[in-house]
Amino acid sequence: MSTVNITDTFEHATAADARSAPRHSVVIAVAFFVGFLFLVFAFAGRARAQAASAVRPAIAITHVNVVDVESGRILENMRVEVSGGIIRYVGKEGTAGMRMTSPVLINGTGKYLIPGLWDMHVHSAWPLFPALMGPQYIVNGVTGVREMFGDLAVIRQWRATSATADTIWPRVVASGHIIDGKPPIWPTSVVAVTEADGRHAVDSLKQAGADFIKVYSLLPRAAYIGVAKRAKELGIPFVGHVSYSMTVAEASDLGQKSIEHLDGVIRACSSRDAEFRPLVRGIVERGVGFDSIISAGRVQNEALLDSQDAGACAALASTLRKNGTWLSPTLTVLHGMGWADDTTQLSDARLQYMPKFLTAGWNPKNDFRLKTMTPESWARRKREFKRNVELVRYMHERGVPIIAGTDMLNPWVFAGWSLHDELAYYVDAGLTPLEALRTATLNPARFLDKQKETGTVAEGKWADLVLLDANPLENIRNTTAINTVIADGRLVTPERRLQMLEAVKLLAKPNLGARKP
After folding, report:
1. In degrees rounded to 5, what are phi and psi of residue 132?
2. I want to staple 137 with a disulfide (CB 3.0 to 4.6 A). Which of 142, 163, 389, 503 is the partner?
3. Are the C-beta atoms of 435 and 426 separated by less than 8 Å?
4. Going by DSSP bridges, is the β-strand pair 112-115/465-468 parallel, antiparallel, or unpaired?
5. Is 52 helix (H, G, I), strand (E, B) or coil?
């Protein structure tokens, strides 16, 4: 039986894929290389934390327009008061209500207040990365993230540092390591082959502190079923990719709570899925490896796009809606992977906040998933992106719920910044600005079963708020017009936002651990 204990995941997975491990992205390897630096920062932060408690002042935002993301109304001339990390009062300015003693006053005249944003698909939980990515989320109004593959020890340090010091990083829910087949696509995965392996993997991850379970693309059918059954027994959600051994409908029927990247949806909407599926399923069951899946894709993907079937797509939408299966489209990363050959992106100003050891992996020549791409492959990726944009609107119109995520860490996806791109893609797809905004506020609260804590600007909820200089319901790009952020009751003024970005820029500047292509 395959070994799935968390403590020996790295060694086991690497042994299982010794031939292909060197080809993987430099990101994770380099992250471990610089891990000691993160520990230095972490221990320094803890020492400072012992000397001073976190700063959560009483704050009153006056004369502000509150965006009610639930009703879609703008509540004009409101007063919002927070203290101790909680929203204490929301009401009309000048009416009877709670009045704090000597609060920090913020004049909200002409401004718009929205709930803190969530990015529901990121990868920041590796050594050093919280110090790099955490501030970027916050300055972009992202006060919560769903970590989809990272180190649970780093997650624990993240929470401890952010909770005890004046270090402002987002709230985080996390899966820890992903569960994949043998050989896994990523070396640090938990490997599972049999149903017993899948059950054991869920037990190990839950015991290690995972908030949910993430499954991946090469998980054999028996192992996938083991994960699904055990997750249900333990009451822990499981999410992720749809393994090539399963159909999207089967994954939904077995209780997979969210499907990332619209994974498998184009295939499920094709009239030829049943014809092509045995090949990819056989690759997974035989444990041949990811290269074979890439080769199969060259044969199948164009034909799948050419055979999109309205009936098949309608049946899938019905299944997803009936089962309450969420979609996290991550159009940002689908665009990033489809346009990674576009060298004009090298002038993107956001690169100054990302370390070179990371962005070096964004070069297609350095990414094992992209280095064999042909001109025809790039053209097909772009065509797939266009179809996925269409599918976002199609599924949304049929009642399939959507949460916004970016897949930060992958090519041309930036921490915090790219969530605003994601929302703009949804509007391009046909959602209204309000519907797009809900995918990063109200919908994550519902998905996480945290409606009482977050998702709207309301009394008793977490003080995670973003003050905008323009109305996001008129133009979704106005979510980038950020004036002030309040994260867990801590105030991030315009001046502090600039200071945080300057600190990130200095931390990102050294080319730590960079390798020559």
Report:
1. -85, -45
2. 142
3. yes
4. antiparallel
5. coil
Tokens read off for 454? 């977050």
Alpha-carbon dihedral sign for residues 313, 317, 320, 325: positive
Q: Are 116 and 144 in contact (CB under 8 A)?
A: yes
Question: b/e string for 415-429 if b means 16 or more Cβ within 10 A?
Answer: bbbbbbbbbbbbbeb
| Cβ partners under 8 Å of residue 261, min gap 6 | 241, 328, 329, 330, 333, 334, 407
CA distance 55 to 388: 43
Place of tokens 């576009």: 342
Asked, as a colleague might, if the bond just before 183 is cis with ω within 30 of 0, I would say yes
pLDDT at 191: 97
| pLDDT of res. 50 | 37
E runs forming strands in 350-435: none
d(CA 309, CA 303): 12
Q: What angle do CA 33, 190, 368 make, to 5 degrees?
A: 60
Strands 171-174, 104-107: pairing is unpaired
Domain assignments of the chain as residue spans, ordered by start: 1-33+175-316
Structure tokens at 273: 């899925």
Question: Are 322 and 255 spatial neighbours (Cβ–Cβ below 8 Å)?
Answer: no
N-to-C CA span, the chain: 38
Place of tokens 């990390």: 85
Beta strands in 150-241, from DSSP E residues, in sequence order: 171-174, 179-180, 190-191, 213-215, 238-240
Q: Which two tokens stand for residue 434?
A: 């309000």
DSSP notation for 217-268:
TT--HHHHHHHHHHHHHHT--EEE---TTS-HHHHHHTT--EEETTTTHHHH
Over the chain (517 residues), the average pLDDT of each successive run of 10 is 33 35 41 42 41 70 97 97 95 77 91 98 95 97 98 96 87 98 95 98 98 98 98 98 98 98 98 96 94 90 97 98 98 97 94 94 93 93 97 98 97 98 98 98 98 98 98 98 97 97 92 42
> What is residue 98's predicted lDDT score, i.e. its pLDDT?
64
